[in-house]
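Form 7-S
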Amino acid sequence: MLLTVTLNTALDITYRVGSLRPHTSHRVSQVIERPGGKGVNVARVLAALGHEVTATGFAGGPTGRVLRELLARTPGVTDALMPIGGATRRTVAVVDERTGDTTQLNEPGPQISPAEWAAFQDRYAELLGGASAVALSGSLPPGLPVGAYAGLIRAARARGVPVLLDTSGEPLRRGVAARPDIIKPNSDELAELTGSHEPSRATQDARRRGARAVVASLGPDGLLAATPEGRWRAAPPARVHGNPTGAGDSAVAGLLSGLVEQLPWPDRLTRAAALSAATVRAPGAGEFDPGTYAELLGRVAVTGVVSAA
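Output:
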């Protein structure tokens, strides 16, 4: 069983409009609601790839109930979300159909009490007993300690369960020091962590800070990986246009599934890059376009990186 942790779950709402213009009213042509938060997106993609997945984290209030109802309709995902007193947040993506650009609005999330956090840690320890790998994804809701992910990483390492961390800011900095197996920052998050805006140098620096492997998302330029086995860049053959929301989460699903399947790193990166690009073609986060994915699996270019610039 693969375990995903989403401490700040969300009900993802996508609006499509003909053209997004400030200071005007808009007619929405399509509304899509999905269970979300980065780890929930990862879980849904893993399930679509045929893996057994358990999704845990927090959910509460009317929004949390809708999220769990939608999640229950996802084959292959077991709901192990913990109930809380606060209301799960919403995220709103507005897609401009004329340009393809997406504007994202993310609520902060509910306040988590010390008792709720303690109960979650106990439940997490139980779930680790049946997990082959775990993904820790997304922001921390109010009330949680900034070192929350670091503690979850140490708990997984004590049980011998590989950990992938995908977060940002101080939670990422603290988490890297706990020595996760993989981190997956984007280029901005990597620069914030290391102080370097040169991705090749920054990935190596992040490894020195504690991460066993670093896979950086470079947007339409693909992925850059620094691992104990070598360094590679993976890129799709051309830029894919669409809604990029959730593309990084699909890359996490590709990396985590490749880890448990013991694929060589170039094959993991091929899968991750193809899934990421195929998600841009899908209606919402946590989904990918199967045709685009199948096509790109044979067209993603993975090249070795000889030295840092």
